[in-house]
UniProtKB/TrEMBL annotation:
InterPro entries: ABC_Gly_betaine_transp_sub-bd (IPR007210). It comes from Lentibacillus cibarius. Its main location: membrane. Residues 1-22 form the signal peptide. GO terms for molecular function: amine transmembrane transporter activity; carnitine transmembrane transporter activity. Residues 29-39 have a biased composition (Low complexity). The lineage of its organism: Bacteria, Bacillati, Bacillota, Bacilli, Bacillales. This is Glycine betaine ABC transporter substrate-binding protein. The keyword Transport applies. SUPFAM superfamilies: Periplasmic binding protein-like II (SSF53850).
Length: 323
């Protein structure tokens, strides 16, 4: 009887030992394969697969000006950062407050920086507090623009002394918000080209487009301030006027992501993402009309883009662990 008990106990001991060894082996294999494990204190240990820059602070603010490209890009970047693990506030503001908030740290970065000429005054004011992280588009022309049916108007010079056109539009150039760089450049163009009777009307991009749509529907003359990339060029027949004096800076410079100078230290993963982010005119020209011509929610448009372009998103997020 005792012998049977001894043998039973021995068998049980051997079985438990085998199970313990198997469990240890499995745990070591899973750790070697990557992922997280715990140390003796129960703290998470990062392994090779999820190593990379830390999130740092979790809450981020992205200010943007309510222009077409800036809207869709800001929401797209916000959605990707949310997937990485941040809490993101995408915030519509005007140009001056946008730069000021990034400079003083109440916001983290903006993808709406038009440099070097269009927003030169803000760069000159805040350049010691911000850093230009990533040039996303290398050409962003700005110009006075008219519908193509205004066949006699092809240059800013064609506005000078043009009484017939001036009276038809009440000598008005329809502009956008007063803090925009294209507005100060248009004020300069009025001086450079001697457009003495012409006045620049300050409004907003939305109001300007409403007037542009109305004029085109009725085939009436209109002169507006516009730029590329912009969704209107995909749905309207428009002509950007030649600028022989170069007041608008030729190709308009470039568009960049500008961040607060401490973002790299405060949110390393976010900084790596905006440094790796890329953009193309084709991409933007597909996104803009969905929001501004089809009136879709920019968050939903961004989410659909992320779903449909996994390889591109992976490039933007390369080396960035998800928390």
């Amino acid at each position: 009887m005792l012998k049977k008990r001894y043998l039973s106990c021995l068998a049980l001991t051997l079985m438990l030992s085998v199970m313990l060894l198997a469990a240890c082996s499995e745990g070591e294999s899973s750790t070697e394969a990557g992922g997280s494990s715990e140390n003796n204190e129960g703290e998470s240990v990062h392994t090779e697969e999820n190593s990379g820059p830390e999130l740092g602070k979790k809450d981020l603010t992205i200010p943007y000006v309510a222009w077409a490209r800036e809207t869709v890009v800001s929401y797209l970047m916000g959605e990707v950062l949310e997937d990485i693990g941040y809490n993101v506030d995408v915030k519509q503001v005007e140009t001056g407050p946008m730069w000021a908030s990034v400079a003083d740290g109440s916001a983290d970065f903006t993808a709406s920086a038009w440099l070097p000429e269009s927003q030169k005054q803000y760069w000159d004011q805040y350049k010691d507090q911000v850093v230009e992280v990533n040039q996303t588009l290398d050409k962003a022309p700005l110009a006075l623009t008219v519908p193509t049916y205004m066949e006699d108007i092809n240059s800013v010079e064609d506005l000078k002394g043009n009484t017939e056109l001036g009276e038809q539009v009440n000598w008005k150039i329809t502009g956008i918000d007063s803090g925009a760089g294209i507005m100060s450049l248009t004020d300069q163009a009025i001086k450079d080209y001697g457009l003495d009777k012409w006045e620049l009307q300050h409004s907003s991009e939305a109001a300007m487009i409403t007037e542009l749509k109305s004029a085109i529907e009725n085939k009436e003359p209109i002169v507006v301030t516009l730029w590329k990339p912009h969704w209107t060029f995909g749905v309207m027949d428009l002509n950007m006027l030649k600028d022989p004096k170069g007041t608008y800076g030729g190709d308009g410079g470039h568009i960049s992501i500008v961040a607060h100078k401490d973002l790299k230290d405060n949110a390393p993963a976010a900084f790596k993402f905006i440094n790796q982010y890329t953009e193309s005119y084709e991409m933007i020209e597909k996104l803009m009309p969905q929001v501004f011509a089809e009136d879709k929610d920019p968050e939903k448009v961004a989410r659909e883009f992320i779903k449909d372009n996994p390889d591109l998103i992976d490039k933007w997020r390369k080396g960035i662990p998800t928390e």
